[in-house]
Amino acid sequence: FVLNRPQRLTFPDVLLHLQLLDPDELIRLPSAAREFQIQAGGPVETGRGFVLHSDDYLSDSSIPVSDDICLTATLDIVKAISRGEGPLKATMLLGYAGWGPGQLENEISS
Questions:
Q1: What distance in Å separates the CA atoms of residue 4 and residue 65, rounded to the nearest whole number?
Q2: Domain segments of the chain: what residues?
Q3: Which residue stretches of the chain are H helix?
Q4: What pTM was estimated for this model as a whole?
């Protein structure tokens, strides 16, 4: 993942796009959800979202990345964040960086 490229897209934009929220419900969105940061995760599958977050939120689909950081890529965490019930620390990544077989080795050698 690329972790340092904020997007102009907002979390409310994501909720509206996914039809998880009606425009008239935006006013009831918790302030933390309105300010939730969206980052570019990489150039592959930019329509796919991942949430990198603290381990105070866990679901069956959460994958531990380190002792206190997890990755979750399901709508459950997006819904939890929109209700103010998500992790204390988190960022959403759209897309990821990936390489095909042998591609990374070729790029490194050139």
A1: 18
A2: 11-109
A3: 11-17, 31-34, 75-82, 103-109
A4: 0.83
Alpha-helical (H) ranges within 53-93 are 75-82
Among the residues of 27-102, which ranges form H helices?
31-34, 75-82
Quote the CA–CA distance of 8 and 28 in Å, as a whole number.
Answer: 22
Q: Which residues of 30-40 are buried (b: 16+ CB within 10 A; e: fewer)?
A: eeebeebebbb
What CATH code would you report for 11-109? Answer: 3.40.1740.10
- Spatial neighbors of 83 by CB under 8 A, at least 6 apart, are 30, 33
What is the average pLDDT across 89-106?
89
Contact predicate 81/38, CB 8 Å: no
Q: Give backbone dihedrals phi and psi of 47, rounded to 5 degrees, phi first.
A: -90, 0
| CA–CA dist 93, 65 (Å, integer) | 15
Parallel, antiparallel or unpaired: strands 90-96 and 38-40 = parallel
Instruction: Give the tens place of pLDDT for each residue, 46-72.
Output: 889 999 999 999 999 999 999 999 999
